[in-house]
Amino acid sequence: MEKVGFSVPQKIPEEYVNKVTEAIQSTSPEKIPQQFMTFLKMYDQFKVDVAVTGDSGSGKSTLINALLGVNHDAKGAAPTGVVETTMEPKVYQYPNCPLKYDMQKLKDTFKKEAPEIKREVFPFFLASLFSGDWWKQRTIMRQALQNGKINEKDVPDLKSLCKTFDVASGTGKLKTTLEALENFQLDVAVLGESRSGVTTLLNGLIRQQNATFCSAHAKTPATSTHYPNVRFWDMSGIENILENSLEEMTEILDTFDFYLLIVSEWKRARHLDLARVIQKLQKKYHFVQTKIDCHLQAQEDLCCPETEILDGLRAQCAEELQRAKLDNSQLFLINSLDRKDFDFVSLESVLGSDLDTIRISAFAYYVDIIVKNKKQAQSSCQIL
After folding, report:
1. Cα separation of 278 and 73, whole Å?
2. Does the pLDDT of residue 299 top 90, yes or no?
3. Which of 36, 38, 170, 375 is the most buried (most CB within 10 A)?
4. Would you say 74 and 97 are in contact if contact means Cβ atoms under 8 Å apart?
């Protein structure tokens, strides 16, 4: 049997790889993941403060309420009136809500420009915390801790990272790292036996009808605007992957960031074998039972309600997962040909949320790997 070998294309452009590795080449390898996780989590949670200014009575509070999508007398609304009502700065959270007239244009502008503004502002914010005038640093640090922009426990890691990136001399390296994060490609493997519905599931996820995908071995992933910077890989034929040694199988699976495992027959339970390997990699996955419509058709002779059949199938799957000690996993029952049927919408919702959650850790892990590989290559060259 020929070994199944596979590696995904580079996850970020080469220019970013070089700049990021150059910026942190002096950092101890064991410190990179923790420092990056602290930095990136803080960036993910960082709130940009937008000031609404104008003369007294010019409608600042009215504009804020319009952006918030609330009436002037609603709870949490900015106070309005015929006389000056706002005597001091106050914070209002910007929600996701429909707006009217040119408010929608303003909202669209915020949505378009906010990521770029955040990438610009955040490095300057960190630089102000750990460089420049000591008294100014102390004042900004105290305010940042008070308003929740940073946590005190994260300060040592952030300080060390800012020293590594030499923010005292400029914020260019931090900006480059954040740009690399924005361009980072998550790789999702959809694994199933031959003819298990892998391609049909991919069609449903990227919302195309009868699209044809090359296998992962051809290095042609499926992409969709519904999942920005995510590459889906058709990994049908898992029976071939499982013929590799455990070490080779682990190497194949480790190239991906997330996994959708199509449930095979429980007697063979190949999806369980894959799940165990993925668990050892400390990565996330979901089980998907495809062709539920076919399963229901096969049970027509039982004259049972559809809900009862589905409940029985869920109970059976839950029992099998519990027996395999994988009961903390989620299982979705779907008909890939109809996105409105069964659990397909839930799968999309959970998948989108999970991919957003793992993006930071996957990026930190990837940077850690490329830095270590680069240092090993340099060491080899020095020996030669």
Report:
1. 53
2. no
3. 36
4. no
CA 178/CA 117 separation, integer angstroms: 12
312 alpha-carbon distance from chain centroid: 33
Question: Looking up tokens 């007697």, which residue turns up?
Answer: 267
Backbone angles phi, psi at 224, to 5 degrees: -155, 145
Q: What sign has the CA pseudo-torsion 179, 21, 157, 167?
A: negative
**What's the rounded Cα separation, in Å, for the pair 315 and 266?**
13
Which of 79, 42, 12 lies closest to 229 in space, CA to CA?
Answer: 12
Query: Which pair of structure tokens corresponds to residue 294?
Result: 């076919």
**Matching residue, tokens 């999309």:** 348
Tell me how far CA of residue 202 lies from CA of 122, 284, 329, 346, 357, in angstroms: 36, 18, 21, 15, 21
Q: How far apart are CA 370 and CA 359, in angstroms?
A: 16
3-state secondary structure of 259: strand
Q: Residues for the chain: how many in total?
A: 384
pTM over 0.85? The answer is no
pLDDT in tens, 186-196: 999 998 888 77
Question: Beta strands of 110-262 (E only): which ranges?
Answer: 186-192, 222-224, 227-236, 258-262
Are 190 and 263 a contacting pair, CB within 8 Å?
no
Q: What is the pLDDT of residues 346-371, one digit of tens each?
A: 888 999 889 988 888 888 888 888 77
Measured in Å, how far apart are the chain's first and last C-alpha atoms?
Answer: 36
Whether the Cβ atoms of residue 65 and residue 71 lie closer than 8 Å to each other: yes
Ramachandran angles phi, psi of 305, nearest 5°: -60, 150
The reported pLDDT for the residue numbered 185 is: 92
d(CA 330, CA 261): 11
Distance CA 352, CA 356 (A): 6
At 355, which amino acid appears?
L
